[in-house]
């Protein structure tokens, strides 16, 4: 798989997400400041609720913007077996049931899903439980973690 192409797709997807978030933030702002939404009594909270929504949308927009910048500045490094798995590595793990997942260790945008060469790749960060467990591991090693009270074990099948 071409990591440079994957990186470009992540940046493009974050650009699209940024545009959507900016439109949502603008709409929430306009709703919050519209003259029809001025509170007439203490129970009239539409304007207040819209302002909370606008604030949240503005924060989300900034998170996406910062994530996109992080990816634009990301240096793709090849896998170094001596250092183990690091940020910018593409990792394939296999669960005990034989199912495989393809994970890109990125600086931000955890949960983002990108399809490349008909393969679904999920972005995770070193801050996630699985990301923490993978950092420094090598091909062939196992990682085990407990999520929602259930122990999950994965084998690192491939790293690039």
Automatic annotation (TrEMBL):
List GO BP terms, alphabetically: regulation of DNA-templated transcription elongation
Q: Which domain of life is it from?
A: Bacteria
Q: Which residues does the UniProt record annotate as the domain Transcription elongation factor GreA/GreB C-terminal? A: 123-159
Specify one Pfam family.
GreA_GreB
Q: Where are the transmembrane segments?
A: none
An annotated Gene Ontology molecular function: translation elongation factor activity
Could you tell me which InterPro entries the record lists for this protein?
A: GreA/GreB_C_sf, Tscrpt_elong_fac_GreA/B_C
Keywords per UniProt: Elongation factor, Protein biosynthesis
| Protein's name according to its UniProt entry | Transcription elongation factor GreAB
UniProt source species: Pseudomonas laurentiana
């Amino acid at each position: 798989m071409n990591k440079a192409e994957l990186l470009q797709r992540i940046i493009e997807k974050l650009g699209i997400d940024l545009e959507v978030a900016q439109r949502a933030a603008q709409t929430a702002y306009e709703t919050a400041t519209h003259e029809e939404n001025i509170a007439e009594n203490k129970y009239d909270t539409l304007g207040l609720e819209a302002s909370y929504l606008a604030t949240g949308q503005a924060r989300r927009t900034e998170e996406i913007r910062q994530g996109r910048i992080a990816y634009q500045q990301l240096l793709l490094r090849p896998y170094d077996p001596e250092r183990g798995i690091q940020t910018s590595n593409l990792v394939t793990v296999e669960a005990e049931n034989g199912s495989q997942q393809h994970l890109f260790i990125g600086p931000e945008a955890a949960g983002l899903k990108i399809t490349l060469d008909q393969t679904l790749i999920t972005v995770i960060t070193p801050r996630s439980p699985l990301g923490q467990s993978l950092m420094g591991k090598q091909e062939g090693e196992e990682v085990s973690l407990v999520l929602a009270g259930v122990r999950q074990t994965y084998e690192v099948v491939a790293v690039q």
